[in-house]
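Pipeline run #58 for the internal structure catalog. This entry was flagged by the ingest filter as a single-chain record with no existing model, so it goes straight to prediction. Upstream metadata was stripped on purpose; only the residue string is passed forward. Reviewer on rotation: M.T. Logging verbosity set to normal.
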Amino acid sequence: MTITPLTAEDFRSTTADLADLLVDVVTGGSSVGFLAPLDHAAAAAWWRSLEPAVADGSRRVWIARGPNGLAGTVGLALDHRPNSRHRAEVVKLMVHRNARGQGLGRALLTTAEQAAAQAGSTLLLLDTEAESTADHMYRASGWTHYGVVPEYATDPAGALRDGSFYYKRIA
């Protein structure tokens, strides 16, 4: 798999593929902020809503392409407020169901971590559904679990799920 950063122009031309990926992960039951069924038009509209942030550099997005097309993505939300320029948030780490189990999630996470360090961030944050596959991956990747919020969000079927919260200090 090749992981590449998206420029604002690349991001715009990749929206349809990103929408396909988002629909796949929601259909597969991943809690990434959307309810099922998620149609392609709604998924594409959500990605398009991020264009200004990608263009101004406050949101960075990477994609992973494999032999079957877009296999994964990860985002990094940089905080430019004066008191929080040192931190960033890893957002929307998604791997297509047919590309899971090959280490792509960890590779995308490492990419975001390295980019955050290069951008001057020293603290990363993220949240995920408690007891999910992603939850276990973050623990195994050296992230510090700092709490669980009961019934934080719903899964794609609408059932309330606990949220796990993590941080990681980076050099």
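catalog note: The two ends are 26 Å apart (CA to CA).
catalog note: The longest strand covers residues 144-154.
status: ready for reviewer M.T.
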